[in-house]
Write a structure and sequence with these properties.
By secondary structure, this protein is of the alpha/beta class. It folds into two domains: 128 residues, Response regulator (Rossmann fold, 3-Layer(aba) Sandwich), CATH 3.40.50.2300; 135 residues, Rossmann fold (3-Layer(aba) Sandwich). It is built from eleven helices and twelve strands.
Length: 317
């Protein structure tokens, strides 16, 4: 073979090799999906558990998860959604404080063809692709019916109830309304007042103390969320009323389990926050690929009492 032919063969082989090497694999060419999650606060264990479930699902499915703390501020949540739209994330997951105020930002996301997943708080708008969470009105009725049965069996069929709520929270208002609907069916149960803990533990404590001192005949508190129930427990303790007042409410925490053991918290709605977070990321991944998911995905709840609390202790070890 002549020198010129050898040279030409080498050059041709090198060009072919270069072409083969330069072709990226389809897997490497794909952009990693990014999901933006806007939460309410990082104080409540519930929201941290949602984040953990979402992060676990993201890690297992090659998704980048960006979490923004709304810090109990609806305006901050709106800004976070707007930022995610500008960043062109693959999907947005939101736990809305103000389910109406956040809608314009969510519509901007939908206009940019970014799927929106609502967790925990149902946002009634076409911009939202799916809702994942608890049937809050239904579970509110469920804990209300539990209280009616408890009062009939243990309190002679009569109770005076105060509510520690969070009037700035759409979902906690749903829980209150569902509960009130159930207890109104019992003529022996009287609801005397609702106070606003603002979904902050310290404010729920102060509101709970005011509720206890202003209503000396009250013997039941219904707390609509984790800060509310922890604040109510502290309020009852500070007023030396743990013998007089029973508490029902939402969301376990170490303080709540101890109060169940001590006998004055008698029933608690326990949600599945990690499962909500996990399902949200999986739905976001499907929607970002153009697949469909159900419009509503309800995660079941349990009523935790002294009889079944042992099953839940492992959550806090």
């Amino acid at each position: 073979m002549t020198r010129s032919r050898i040279t030409a063969l080498v050059v041709c082989t090198a060009l072919i090799a270069g072409l083969i090497v330069s072709q990226p694999s389809s897997g490497l060419a794909q952009k990693q999906p990014t999901v933006g999650l806007v939460t309410i606060n990082l104080q409540a264990l519930f929201f941290n558990q949602v984040n953990q479930g979402a992060q676990d699902a993201a890690n297992k499915n090659g998704v980048k998860l960006a979490i923004v703390n709304g810090n109990n501020d609806p305006a901050a949540q709106v800004s976070a959604v707007e930022d995610f739209v500008q960043q062109k994330v693959s999907a947005i997951v939101v736990l809305a404080i103000d389910v109406k105020g956040i809608v314009p930002a969510l519509r901007e996301a939908a206009k940019a063809k970014i799927p929106v997943i609502a967790i925990d708080a149902l946002v009634e708008d076409p911009s939202v692709s799916t809702f994942i969470g608890t049937d809050n009105p239904g579970a509110g009725e469920q804990i209300g019916r539990f209280l009616v049965s408890y009062v009939n069996a243990n309190m002679g069929g009569k109770a005076t109830v105060g509510v520690v709520g969070a009037l700035n929270s759409f979902i906690q208002n749903q829980r209150r309304d569902g509960f009130l609907k159930a207890v109104k069916a019992s003529p022996g149960i009287k609801v005397v007042a609702t106070v606003d803990g603002q979904n902050v533990q310290e404010r729920a404590l102060a509101a709970g103390e005011n509720l206890v001192t202003a209503n000396p005949s009250m013997n039941v508190i219904y707390a609509t969320g984790e800060p509310a129930i922890i604040g109510s427990i502290a309020a009852v303790q500070s007023q030396n009323a743990t013998r007089r007042i029973k508490i029902v409410g939402w969301d376990l925490a170490p303080q709540v389990i101890k109060a169940i053991d001590d006998g004055y918290v008698v029933g608690v709605v326990q949600q599945g926050p990690e499962e909500e977070g996990r399902q949200a990321v999986l739905a976001a991944l499907k929607l970002s690929k153009g697949q469909t998911v159900p419009k509503k995905i309800f995660v079941p709840v349990a009523i935790v009492t002294k009889e079944n609390v042992d099953k839940f202790r492992g959550m806090f070890k």
